[in-house]
Amino acid sequence: xxxxxxxxxxxxxxxxxxxxxxxxxxxxxxxxxxxxxxxxxxxxxxxxxxxxxxxxxxxxxxxxxxxxxxxxxxxxxxxxxxxxxxxxxxxxxxxxxxxxxxxxxxxxxxxxxxxxxxxxxxxxxxxxxxxxxxxxxxxxxxxxxxxxxxxxxxxxxxxxxxxxxxxxxxxxxxxxxxxxxxxxxxxxxxxxxxxxxxxxxxxxxxxxxxxxxxxxxxxxxxxxxxxxxxxxxxxxxxxxxxxxxxxxxxxxxxxxxxxxxxxxxxxxxxxxxxxxxxxxxxxxxxxxxxxxxxxxxxxxxxxxxxxxxxxxxxxxxxxxxxxxxxxxxxxxxxxxxxxxxxxxxxxxxxxxxxxxxxxxxxxx
Length: 364
What we know:
This protein is an alpha+beta fold. Helix content is about 40%, strand content about 25%. The chain is built from 8 helices and 16 strands.
């Protein structure tokens, strides 16, 4: 996953307030619960010495996406009296956190974005289709199309042999025309968000015809068939639930591929494991992809420089006579070096197949 979207978080040199909150709206008193969580986080930031101007900035924006029901989270970053970034998280954080550090701590944002893929959800039947295109980590579709084609003679009827055959041909032709139009809408939706996955559900006959049309002009998007449909609220809810489960499996599968590549590259000397080796590769600009596990509770302190954002050391002396040297936990500093060094990111999902919770794939 490209980390370039995090670059604005590193715009200044002042300490940064990093906040991760559960802003889920699944209960009648969700707004009150979010308010209480923010009060606790704000109090913690104040006790850590957060600037009052930063707290005021956060007061103005905290609260998540009030028009999006269900599970969600929020990550906010403020420094020097400015909001550096605000991100709605598809998955709420495992626990609320509020920290004042020399640099931002965006690992939770990176992991949440790393779990998401741009995708298209299609509910198709004999009359048409509902097509929605979602960018990565967005709750709302960027494109939505509902197509209801001709329904004349859409149901096969009982008649004499010759009339029956004629009606059946017309019915099949209409099904074919309707699903062909739906396939055009799907292709447009895929292109609009550069979708990696197309999730298709609905009437088996219509799904089969749609599959044929999509195969004729195949895109790079992976097509996955799920349960649900467009007939009523129950079918649409089933579609959303099965689509979420399928997306999780696709995401996990893609992460397994990266870990398999890591194992192969380690054997060939084109990958590294462990903080000492990875920090050196980041400092030299040799890291293509930084891999981190989400649990950073055992991270040691590292030292970094304001002058060279990629340089890291286990001892301040390793950075020479540099008056801008500061210390922080390893993960925020590794992320800083990765973001500003143009590296990408992948989470090491549990249970890890690696022998370490920090690794890097190297540029050739």
